[in-house]
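call fold target=Lon N-terminal domain-containing protein
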Amino acid sequence: RGPACPLCRAPAERVRKAGELQVDAQRAAEVRRAVGYSRYEAQRREVWAQAADLDERGVFGELPLVCAGSGHVSAGARQKMCVVEPQYLEMLRRALAPGGRRSFAVLLHPFEFEAGAHCRVCDIIDSAEGRDGGLHVVVEGGPPCRVLQVQAEAVRDCPAPLFHGTLEELEEEDVADPAEGALMGAASDVVEILGLLGRHLR
């Protein structure tokens, strides 16, 4: 599912700033007649207040961070994930609860919970409980982001913390390539090994 109008659920374009939001006047009039003027105006003011708040905090605000072990999540592509780690199960339970925010960010490069890391927002499309006690989810890759700040949350009965990141959106072409990062890391290891061998052979 892509972006949708919070009032009528019609498909909408993804935007970065509240000023880029566009309102279909004809559709707005239809919704206003259907729900009543007072209710429509109250909801409209609430939506614009939320949009202004997101402008101030960044488009995505703060999202849980997930290290999936591979940075292979493409924009617009859907992917199945099997989640068994306790902290991520808790994250999904919160997201899937009524009123929960059905999004998180998967680390792309490096696979570290640190400021400056690149990640991709993923929207939860579907979910099902597995026989192993885990959760199977289908996610859709959204826009790439950079982590600005990281906070760790201690989750009850979980040995590992749940990390949250404050995010800013990146252009697709600015996203670090995980394969390139791995290649550079391997090359660095080779150079270090050759240096050690050279010193021992002197």
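return ok
The longest helix spans residues 178-201. The first strand starts at residue 62 and ends at 66.
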